[in-house]
Specification:
By secondary structure, this protein is of the alpha/beta class. It contains 7 helices and 7 strands. α1 packs across α6 and α6 (about 175-195) runs antiparallel to α7 (about 200-205).
């Protein structure tokens, strides 16, 4: 049985730490802590990798009892080359069914998240790189909003390259990091549901 693979997209290195473009990496690191994940550098994958076991507790339902092995991956390539870290792990369309990629999305307001499946990259370079590397769009993603919003909570998407760069390369404020930590609990539960009950159930419950 092939492992589940959860990927958190971002750029390696200190200068990118805490930036909005690193949202996937930040969230997967927080989720890893919940599982006492021990990260190790995998030179072959050019990534930080941790092995955990995920699943609902046995009491949730006898049928769902038991936990499944999951590989957490934080690519150490730059965003545009993320596929290099994923290609050796996802070798078929079938194995892509157990892949989830967590990443930042400018088309959604900060603090929101959505599970999607089998969609285009939407211009996200990291996602584009993974799609090219594994030759399929048929995998799950957790899109996490990073765009500013109006006082009424509507999306205020930046327009123009400079404005976009300013948002994605800007660092999260401490109060925004608290919002991400809260969001990580919801995403962690969604990932557990995905592993134990399948994608449809996770989408119905968390979207």
């Amino acid at each position: 049985m092939s492992n589940y693979v959860f990927v958190g997209l971002g750029n390696p290195g200190q200068e990118y730490e805490g930036t909005r473009h690193n949202t996937g990496r930040i969230l997967l690191s927080i989720i890893g802590k919940q599982y006492d994940a021990e990260w190790k550098e995998d030179k072959k994958l050019s990534a930080q990798v941790a092995k955990i076991k995920v699943g609902l507790p046995a009491s949730a339902s006898r049928r769902q009892a038991g936990k499944s092995p999951v590989t957490l991956v934080l690519p150490d390539t730059f965003m545009n080359n993320s596929g290099k870290s994923i290609k050796p792990l996802i070798t078929s369309v079938k194995s892509a069914e157990k892949l989830v990629v967590v990443y930042d999305d400018l088309d959604m307001p900060f603090g929101s998240s959505k599970i999607s499946f089998n969609k285009s990259s939407g211009g996200h370079r990291g996602l584009e790189s993974i799609i090219k590397a594994i030759k399929t769009e048929k995998f799950a993603r957790v899109r996490v909003g990073i765009s500013p919003k109006t006082p009424t909570g509507k999306l205020k998407k930046p327009s123009g390259e400079d404005a976009v760069m300013k948002v994605i390369m800007g660092k999260f404020k401490p109060e925004e990091m608290l919002v991400l930590k809260k969001l990580s609990k919801k995403i962690s539960e969604a990932l557990e549901t995905f592993v134990s009950s399948g994608l449809e159930r996770a989408m119905t419950r968390f979207n």
